[in-house]
Amino acid sequence: MKIILTHEVSGLGAAGDVVDVKDGYARNYLVPRGFAIRWTKGGEKDVAQIRRARKIHEIATIEQANSIKGQLEAVKVRLAVRSGDAGRLFGSVTPADIASAIKAAGGPEVDKRRVELGSPIKTLGSHQVSVRLHPEVAAQLGVEVVAA
């Protein structure tokens, strides 16, 4: 099935790309979550609009991405969240929480869609988070989750 990506999907492509994927993957995962729309002849107009929006938000060069990576890795991020007695959180830490904590700690502004969690953060302690800045550049960030 041909689809048009509306968001960046790791291993598949960036927003505005027209890709061919298995029907079930598109129908059950990408389209319901808003990561893609079905390709149509009329949808070609949408591709140009999505690409224009992507150019505004994307980091243009690898050098720029590397400088932001250096800033991110220098920032110490602490998140204060509510937790139970055993150190288990009420809920989990989301990419939006991490993006706002980076900004609050004095780091550069990061889009929440670029923050990649390996698994949901549901416990107190130190956790590693990846921030994909460019298709070739990703920053590894240490996040300290503490009780509020």
Strand content: 25-35%
Q: In total, how many domains does the architecture comprise?
A: 2
Q: Roughly what is the average pLDDT, rounded to an integer? A: 87
- Shape category: globular
Straight-line N-to-C gap: 47 Å
Q: Can you summarize the main beta sheet?
A: 4 strands, mixed
How would you spell out the order of helices and strands? EEHEHHEEHEEEE
Catalogue the unreliable spans: none
* Fraction of residues in helix: 25-40%
* CATH class group of the largest domain: Alpha Beta
Give me the secondary-structure category.
Answer: alpha+beta
Number of helices: 4
Strand element count: 9
Radius of gyration: 18 Å
CATH superfamily of the largest domain: Ribosomal protein L9, C-terminal domain
Biggest β-sheet: strands ordered side by side in the sheet: 4-9-8-6
GO molecular function: rRNA binding; structural constituent of ribosome
Domain Ribosomal protein L9: 13-40
Family: Belongs to the bacterial ribosomal protein bL9 family.
Keywords: Ribonucleoprotein, Ribosomal protein, RNA-binding, rRNA-binding
